[in-house]
Amino acid sequence: MRVVIVGAGINGLLTARELAKAGVEVMLCDQGELAQQASWAGGGIVSPLYPWRYSPAVTALSQWAQAAYPLLRDELMADVGIDIELLTSGLLFVNTDDARDARVWAQANATTCEVLDADSLRERWPGLAHDAEQGVFFPDIAQVRNPRLLKALIADLQRYPQVQLRSKTAISSVSGAQASHSASVMFTSGELVEADAVIVCAGAWSAKLLPRAAVPVRPVRGQMLQYETAPGTITSMILRDGHYLIPRADGLVLCGSTLEEAGFDNRTTAEARELLEKAAASLWPGLTEQPPVRHWAGLRPGSPNGIPFIGAVPEQAGVWVNAGQYRNGLVLAPASAALISDLVLGRTPRLAAAPYAPMT
Ligand SMILES: Cc1cc2nc3c(=O)[nH]c(=O)nc-3n(C[C@H](O)[C@H](O)[C@H](O)COP(=O)(O)OP(=O)(O)OC[C@H]3O[C@@H](n4cnc5c(N)ncnc54)[C@H](O)[C@@H]3O)c2cc1C
């Protein structure tokens, strides 16, 4: 079987890996460099933000994927020697007004959740802002160092002789199979490649290649700042009023993020920098004693309700999609890749597929 995958972000790379493991011949193409868009720009929290506020469809994918991450880490370490820094640092939600919902959700989903008052917060996180009055801590939520994960996946795919990775190769259109020919992709260079299946994993750009009514994915810009601290200064991820800190093992701390409808413009802005600096100060005041060392932006693949589209594209035989993971593409990726691969290969899906079917 021969499959063309459009887009080498986390979804394209992991889908390619699933298929390669099954012996499929894969051509994975990206219009730019491999893995430099949303999947690189993201924070790497291995959980939806405020997980109790999501639909069962997103929860099902994220729980499956969270359970799969440790094995992925172990396999990548063994096969390509790259540590993806899957770190169970926990996530602290500060001053949420729905702590009770969080507790109920945690109980129903067999997840540990601690509800903390102001004194306990100060004792455990002494640098936290003084107006932190209450918190909900999920100690089992992990983070992944997403740029390293992407690097490891590229190195892993390079080990398969039947996988072809093509950067700077934009696809201008995708066509379904007809009586006379298979599904195909047309490159902007004019080259046409036929395949048994074409899978669109083009993130925020996916609706440019597919009927928008079936796959209503739009770009939603997110900006991020990076600070430098001594390792161990901040020990957990912290979230307040929709903004968060992600402390890496080496002391780098990410502060994110914005949610902006700015079309396909993924430049950074002074307004967002100011907003994120204020957010960082409201989370951990000491962090902003030094200016941020880096500022970047990425385009999330926004979808209605954050539920991704994973399945066959209607009326385009042989064309499939795995896109629209919105704010949760990094956590959902192992499950999304498993599901699309099962569907394309005609295997019994490891997860119920119906909630993610493109619209008809
Ligand atoms: C600031 C920010 C913070 C985030 N934090 C988190 C987080 O903490 N946890 C989490 O789970 N998620 C997070 N996300 C969301 C997550 O990053 C995305 O949902 C995910 O990366 C989407 O992956 P993707 O592979 O679908 O898209 P992308 O990584 O954008 O990859 C799509 C690829 O397709 C290519 N492409 C597009 N069109 C074509 C074409 N015509 N031909 C060839 N190639 C094409 C693009 O060049 C791109 O490389 C965050 C996102 C942002 C921006």
Overview of the molecule:
This protein has 360 residues and is of the alpha/beta class. It has 2 domains: 2-81 and 146-216 and 304-356, FAD/NAD(P)-binding domain (3-Layer(bba) Sandwich), CATH 3.50.50.60; 91-143 and 218-302, D-Amino Acid Oxidase, Chain A, domain 2. The protein is 28% helix and 24% strand. The strands form 3 sheets. The chain has an 8-stranded mixed sheet with strand order 4-5-3-12-13-14-11-15, with helices on both faces. A 6-stranded mixed sheet has the order 6-2-1-10-17-16, with helices on one face. Helix 1 (10-21) links the parallel strand 1 (2-6) and strand 2 (25-29). The longest helix has 25 residues, at 56-80. The chain is globular. The structure holds flavin-adenine dinucleotide. Flavin-adenine dinucleotide binds at residues 6-12, 29-32, 37-39, 41-45, 170-171, 201-205, 209, 222, 224, 256-257, 298, 300-301, 323, 325-331. Its EC number is 1.4.3.19. It is an enzyme of class 1 (oxidoreductase). GO terms for molecular function: glycine oxidase activity. InterPro entries: FAD-dep_OxRdtase (IPR006076), FAD/NAD-bd_sf (IPR036188), Gly_oxidase_ThiO (IPR012727). Residues 2-343 form the FAD dependent oxidoreductase domain.
Helix content: 25-40%
CATH architecture of the largest domain: 3-Layer(bba) Sandwich
Number of domains: 2
Order of helices and strands: EHEHHEHEHEHEEEEEEEEEHEEEH
Number of strands: 17
Rounded mean pLDDT score:
97
Q: State the major sheet.
A: 8 strands, mixed
Enumerate the strands of the largest sheet in spatial order, edge to edge or round the barrel: 4-5-3-12-13-14-11-15
The rounded distance between the terminal residues' Cα atoms is 27 Å
Q: What amount of the residues lies in strands?
A: 15-25%
